[in-house]
Amino acid sequence: MTTTTPPKDDHTLHIWVLEPPKEGGVLTKDGCEQIARHKYQAGSYTYLDTLLNPFWTFLTERLPLWMAPNVVTTIGGVCCWISYIFSVSYLKQGTEIPTWLYLWNSFSLFAYYTLDCMDGKQARRTNSSSPLGQLFDHGIDAMGNLSHVQAVQCIFQLCPQSMVVLQCSLQTAFYQAQWEEYYTGSLPHATGNVGVTEVTYGMAVWSLLTALFGRNLYDYPLLQLDTAPSWWLWWTGGISQVQIKHIAAILWIFLVIGLTILSYIRVYNHVQSPKVFLSAVSKLAGGPWLLSFVGIVINQQPTLALGLSFCLITIKIIVLSMAKMAYASLQLSIVPFCIASVWLRYFEHEWFTENMKQTLEWALDIYYLISISMWARRAISQLCQKLNVKLFRIDHTQKKE
Question: Does residue 138 carry a catalytic annotation?
Fold first, then answer.
């Protein structure tokens, strides 16, 4: 009788900086085997999820059987990226946001999340479900956060200081959900009957209402501060009024804080070890917390490089979570962004012109785009080989008649 050795589980192994080397890719042999053995666990449904599930099923049944689930996911991602490009273009120009862009952002959010709910159904419908599809889906979600931030900025038009706080809080919250799954094996989708579905569709409706009725309401002053504290002037960009948009932004921050506390409690209750819990917290400190500090205190404005830095470490923990591989507390991939941010903020010299600063910012954007593409390509290549699947094609023999 032959026995097979189970693949190694290193996800609780504490590593400060240098993760164990991997031969021929970003995943070890044991990591690939862990992913191959992974079984999908559906999250809890909210009332809205239950209500809309027949609608998502109806749309999925209209898709051709030859369409791979990852193609469905990618179409949603493309909608988000188009939204991001247009939103950033208008916001950088400082011109009035046209009505058509609010409408597009609304459609983009609706299409993205609807397709996100359809891809798994299409996978089961075509008998092509695989762990790669789940990882690809979550990776697209991580990148989609960049678009969501800009859609909110089009509505509120907050100052750079407020906006970078919102960007860091959103991307930290998303990273933290993956961090929780890394330790508990369960990805939180909702708290009670409010979850991702309600938030995403709510943003879509919000953008649609802004297109129909304008955004002047968000600038309405609720209170005039005769002696505004310095932190408030920093937060609002020098506005000594309490406007509706400021209250909404503060409520979002408190919501993230509440979700963060609940996440910590769930992780601690699962690991039941102060040592392991401190190791888990160090993975937040050396990644999203450090990026948030640099973005908020040093950069003081949202940038593409900041968002892509978050995306890179988030995609990495998503994959290593399923692979049950060790994840270093300090992610070296964020160091170039941190160093460049300090340089851009504090280094002043006559030869370091504005054009050179802009070139450095573009170089950072390109560096992180390439880094994400290369890391994802290597992981996908390893998994396609291990699982014997194609990323964007379905084996004809696997399709259900």
Answer: yes
User: What are the tens digits of pLDDT across the range 336-355?
Assistant: 999 999 988 888 777 777 78
Residue 290 has pLDDT above 90, yes or no: yes
- Roughly what angle, to the nearest 10 degrees, separates helices 131-156 and 99-125? 170
From 308, 305, 315, 324, select the one nearest 363 (Cα to Cα): 305
Cα separation values, 64 from 59, 60, 121, 322, 399, Å: 11, 9, 13, 30, 11
Query: What does the pLDDT look like over 12-47, one tens digit per residue?
Result: 888 888 888 777 789 999 899 999 988 877 667 889
Q: Contact 22/28 with Cβ under 8 angstroms? A: yes
Query: Whose CA is closest to 154, among 198, 214, 195?
Result: 214
**Residue 308 near residue 372 (C-beta atoms within 8 A):** yes
Three-state DSSP at 50 gives helix
pTM: 0.93
Tokens of 20: 């164990």
Question: What does the block give as tokens for 13?
Answer: 């192994």
Q: Is there a contact between 306 and 166 (Cβ–Cβ < 8 Å)?
A: no
Of 11, 14, 38, 138, catalytic: 138
Per residue in 143-186, pLDDT (tens digit) is 999 999 999 999 999 989 999 999 999 999 999 999 999 999 88
What is the C-alpha separation between 175 and 309, in angstroms, rounded? 11
Distance CA 178, CA 11 (A): 13
| φ/ψ of residue 149, rounded to 5 | -60, -45
